[in-house]
Design brief:
Blueprint: H1 7-12, H2 17-31, H3 40-53, H4 59-70, H5 75-89, H6 91-104, H7 115-122, E1 129-130, E2 138-139, E3 142-148, E4 154-159, E5 164-165, E6 168-171, E7 174-175, E8 178-185, E9 187-191, E10 197-199, E11 204-207, E12 213-217, E13 223-229, E14 232-233, E15 236-239, H8 245-249
Antiparallel strand pairs: 1-3, 2-5, 3-4, 4-13, 6-15, 7-14, 8-11, 8-13, 9-10, 9-12
Helix pairs in contact: 3-4, 3-5, 5-6
């Protein structure tokens, strides 16, 4: 997933246009996007520790904590990261960082003003409206936002924590299938008879036609992916049984 930042121009574009350009185009546009050299998860880890070491626990620190969470750093991992850094950066700085991290990794309510709002701040695509037309095929609440309706049509699909779709198959006699591009949060994808695999921002999932599968959010994270339907002959979707509760809880 490409990182795009506009905060520099929005907040300082008139006052300090060169600083805004360096922030948006170089720091985020180039450095953060060198994901072949360092993953988003590792860049978040380095950034959080660097800011904590300087005692910078302001809104920018909260932004990077939210990004770290959505880039796959878990509650137990951030606790260990900050504990380790405390011995080198300073105990009072760790206390201040822990107070903000505890808020970010707290259980988020699945509502408009809680977890969804925090998730939307980390996703460059809109969450959209409740996915009412397909609600019968989902456990939990999902949301759908059309991103493109021309040339290649695709949607941003967002799942609240714990939400997942039923097992299903994209049938086709030739071509067909689906492609998912993960854009925010943490989720799961699983094909029938195979282990589930984590989905993190930047991951791309290629789903062949006629393969039984499901996908959705992790139990403790909102999750968004772009969904591309691949053109195929005699294409149709078949919705099947829900994912077993015990199987999901054991992920």
């Amino acid at each position: 997933m490409a990182i795009k930042q506009t905060a520099g121009r929005e907040q300082l574009g008139d006052f300090a246009p060169e600083f805004a350009r360096l922030n948006d185009d170089v720091l985020f546009g180039e450095v953060w996007n060198r994901q072949d050299r360092l993953s988003l998860r590792d860049r978040s880890l380095v950034t959080v520790v660097s800011l904590m070491a300087q005692g910078l626990v302001d809104p920018s620190f909260e932004y990077h904590l939210i990004s770290a969470k959505n880039n796959g750093i878990t509650k137990s991992e951030i606790a260990e990261i900050l504990t380790h850094a405390a011995f080198y950066a300073g105990w009072p700085k760790a206390w201040a960082a822990f107070r903000m991290a505890a808020k970010v990794w707290a259980e988020e309510p699945a509502d408009e003003e809680g977890g969804r709002a925090a998730h939307e701040r980390t996703c460059i695509f809109p969450v959209g409206e409740p996915n009412a037309a397909y609600a019968q095929y989902f456990v939990g609440n999902s949301y759908l936002a059309p991103i493109s309706t021309e040339q290649v049509a695709f949607f941003n699909v967002t799942f609240e924590p714990g939400c997942r779709n039923n097992w299903h198959v994209h049938h086709a006699s030739e071509g067909g299938g689906q492609m998912l591009v993960c854009v925010a949060g943490r989720g799961w994808y699983q094909e029938w008879g195979k282990p589930a695999q984590k989905m993190l921002p930047g991951d791309v999932i290629h789903i062949p036609a006629n393969v039984k599968h499901w996908h959705g959010a992790a139990a403790d994270s909102w999750f968004s992916h772009l969904a591309f339907e691949i053109e195929g002959a005699d294409a149709s979707n078949e919705w099947l049984e829900p994912v077993g509760e015990a199987d999901y809880e054991n992920l």
